[in-house]
Design goal:
alpha+beta; Immunoglobulin-like; six-stranded mixed beta sheet; three-stranded antiparallel beta sheet; 3 helices; 49% strand
Length: 154
Amino acid sequence: MFGRVKKWFGIEGTKIRLHVLSSYPREVETINGEIEVHSKRTERVLSLKLKFMEVYTRGRGDEKRIDEYLLGTWEMNEAFEVSEGNTEMVLFKMKFEPLNSPMDKRASRGFLQKSFVGLMKSMKGVSSDYFIEAEAIVEDNSWNPVAKVKIVFD
C-alpha cells in the first residue's frame, strides 16, 4: 500500500540529472550533454524530452515584464529499462536557434555599439536567463521526473 503511494508521488522512483557545461560561448549552435537516469527499483522509461528556454526580463517594479521563448527541443522516444540501483547515461546533442532583439543586432556592429547597448539594457533592467529542462516519461508513473539546469553564455 505505502509503496503505491510512494510510486504515485514519485518518491523513491526514477530520478534524472542533467550533465552539461555551465558556460558556453555566445556563437555555439548546439548544446551537448548527458542525461543520467537512475532508480531504486526496476522501471521502464518510455521517452526523454529536453527543452531549451530563454526567460527574457525587462523593466523594474510594477513595469516588470517576463517572456519565455523556446529556443530548441530534443526527444528520444526509444524505451529502456533502468534496473534497481543502476544508472543509465543518455547522450544528447540539441540544436537551437538563438533569438536576437533589435538591440542585440545593433550591439553586434562594433565595440562602441556594444557598450552603448549594454548601458541601455542595464538602465531598462533587461536580462536573459537560459535553462534546459529535462523530463523522463516513466511507465505507470503519475508524476514524471524533471530536472532543470541554468546555462550561461559568455
